[in-house]
Amino acid sequence: MQPIQLFELTSKQAHWLSVRQSVVAGNIANANTPGYATREVAAFQAVLEQTGTRMAATHPGHIQEDALRSSVQDGSGDEIEVLPSGNSVNLPDEMSKTGEIKRMYELNTGMVKSFHRMMLLTVRR
After folding, report:
1. What is the pLDDT of residues 46-56, one digit of tens each?
2. Could you tell me which residue ranges the Flagellar basal body rod protein N-terminal domain spans (predicted)?
3. 6-62 pLDDT, tens per residue?
4. Is the Cβ–Cβ distance between 15 and 48 less than 8 Å?
5. Which of 9, 76, 79, 113 has a CA 20 to 30 Å removed from the CA of 122?
């Protein structure tokens, strides 16, 4: 029997969303910190492609790196306005990202619920 990859994919997306939410929360928390540079997480598709070629832990004692944590970057490459204090956090943009993350979480959990219901219907018959 083939493993059901939809659950794995939605789990990875939920993890990516939690990392992104923590990065956005850190940006908002440092909105008044002089010299703080906005941070951003790489796009989900890019992270998926990157994590597919990572080294595997072959022993339970091996420490596994969180692949998604390495996808956090400084947002200095975009058109970011830097304040005289050296801070580059734009609060409206960060709040917009928070709303986007919330919508993506809702979509993710909706997909899991639908697929779960579909599996239960299949098993009952």
Report:
1. 877 776 555 56
2. 18-36
3. 888 888 899 999 999 999 999 999 998 998 989 988 888 887 777 655 556 677 777
4. no
5. 9
- The answer to whether 17 and 104 are in contact (CB under 8 A) is yes
57 SS3 class: coil
Both structure tokens of 50:
């990157």
- Report DSSP state, residue 46: H
Report which residue type is found at 88. Answer: S
Which DSSP helix (H) or strand (E) runs through 35?
none
Centroid of chain to Cα 18: 5
| The token pair that represents 11 in the structure block | 């789990």
